[in-house]
């Protein structure tokens, strides 16, 4: 299948293909995602389609906690197939991962937001002959989890959510919440709002959603990876926020859906203006991600997401997690493992493991573009 090499992908084609292909990806002509069969050192296990090539040694990476559960699955499967490789991914937050990448401490970083222009410039010191590029790898909803006894179906909208996280709404029986939940007995419990203590792309995506969907209520910097609003309580990583919400009556917080699923945390349905409130599910996130447009140029696939969508069934608090790597100038000793691992994660097989873990696999056309780029890393 020939892929058109363009700086951007047509939004119409992306939308049409993503909805039908986001949950179960169709391989583009071949199960071989290595850039060509028969290359020197190629080794494919009988148990899977994972191709190890010349991968060996330790591959260090760090970053996003939102993608940790996906990364755990990928690492387990890849290491089982490629016995000579150890992939070590530290889930320290997107900001921490990018810092380690630009300092040359890791082969790639996981981030829930694309590199900023100044971070691209910084990456050129490490990528001696190139620069850091954003490779979308997994999507998903940022769930708003809550812990409120007796309330198992809670609806909020963007303005109300903004006021909660800005500590302007302090009680669960506030009139604004009650209006969105007619017939629900809301207690007068004090709201305990939790946010990330570390720099986080998940935080940045929530900032962007609130800034675009509730601009009158949310005046904080939408580009910041650090929590900007006053008050609330901080916890480290998505796992820390999820655990805090799970253990605190009256709590509310934000984290990738897989954390809510794993800890059986109730999640908010969003009143987006669509015909019905929208639940945080991988399918509903995929509908929103379908509207994404590529804003990067060349081999950079940074995406622009539509946080204001009112399409029926489209959950708007979404993130796309990137793997950030050098397009050129990678270290010779880690390049084979880097390419083999990323070839697997974006492959049909690698993407299929995501849905059951609460993630949304990449839309078909974006996945195909990533598969085209990874083998060219040098």
Structure explained in plain terms:
With 378 residues, the chain is of the alpha/beta class. It has 2 domains: 11-140 and 293-305 and 320-376, Periplasmic binding protein-like II (D-Maltodextrin-Binding Protein, domain 2, 3-Layer(aba) Sandwich), CATH 3.40.190; 142-284, Periplasmic binding protein-like II (D-Maltodextrin-Binding Protein, domain 2). The protein is built from 13 helices and 13 strands. It has helices at 11-21, 68-81, 94-102, 117-123, 158-165, 175-180, 201-213, 237-246, 257-263, 282-289, 335-345, 348-352, 364-373; strands at 57-63, 85-91, 108-111, 132-147, 155-157, 192-196, 233-235, 251-256, 266-267, 269-271, 293-294, 303-304, 318-326. Strands 1, 2, 3, 4, 6, 7, 8, 9 and 13 form a 9-stranded mixed β-sheet that branches. A two-stranded parallel sheet has the order 5-10. A hairpin with an 8-residue loop joins strand 11 (293-294) and strand 12. Residues 215-241 are annotated as: Disordered. Pfam families: PBP_like_2. This is Phosphate-binding protein.
């Amino acid at each position: 299948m020939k892929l058109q090499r363009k700086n951007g992908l047509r939004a119409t084609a992306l939308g049409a293909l993503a909805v039908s292909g986001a949950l179960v990806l169709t391989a583009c002509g071949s199960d071989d995602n290595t850039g060509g069969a028969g290359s020197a050192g190629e080794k494919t296990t009988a148990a899977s389609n994972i191709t190890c090539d010349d991968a060996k040694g330790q591959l260090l990476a760090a970053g996003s906690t939102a993608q940790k559960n996906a990364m755990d699955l990928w690492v387990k499967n890849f290491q089982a197939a490629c016995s000579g490789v150890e992939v070590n991914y530290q889930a320290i937050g997107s900001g921490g991962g990018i810092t380690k990448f630009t300092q040359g401490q890791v082969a790639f970083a996981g981030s829930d937001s694309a590199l900023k222009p100044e971070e691209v410039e910084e990456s050129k010191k490490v990528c001696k002959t190139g620069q850091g590029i954003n490779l979308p790898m997994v999507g998903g909803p940022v769930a708003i989890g809550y812990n409120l006894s007796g309330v198992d179906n809670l609806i909020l909208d963007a303005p109300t959510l903004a006021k909660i996280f800005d500590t302007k709404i302090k009680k669960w029986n506030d009139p604004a919440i009650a209006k969105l939940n007619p017939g629900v007995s809301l207690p007068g419990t004090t709201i305990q709002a939790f946010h990330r203590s570390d720099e986080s792309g998940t935080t940045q995506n929530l900032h962007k959603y609130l800034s675009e969907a509730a601009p009158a209520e949310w005046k904080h910097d939408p580009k910041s990876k650090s929590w900007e609003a006053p008050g609330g309580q901080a916890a480290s990583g998505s796992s820390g926020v999820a655990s805090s919400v799970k253990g605190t009556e009256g709590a509310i917080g934000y984290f990738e859906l897989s954390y809510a699923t794993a800890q059986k945390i109730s999640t908010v349905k969003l009143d987006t203006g669509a015909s019905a409130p929208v639940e945080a599910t991988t399918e509903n996130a995929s509908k929103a991600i379908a509207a994404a447009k590529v804003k990067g140029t060349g081999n950079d696939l940074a995406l622009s997401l539509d946080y204001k969508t009112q399409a029926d069934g489209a959950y708007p608090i979404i993130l796309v997690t990137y793997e950030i790597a050098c397009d050129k100038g990678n270290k010779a000793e880690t390049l084979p493992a880097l390419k083999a691992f990323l070839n697997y994660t974006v492959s049909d097989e690698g993407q299929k493991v995501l849905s059951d873990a609460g993630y949304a696999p990449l839309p078909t056309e974006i996945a195909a573009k990533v598969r085209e780029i990874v083998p060219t890393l040098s």
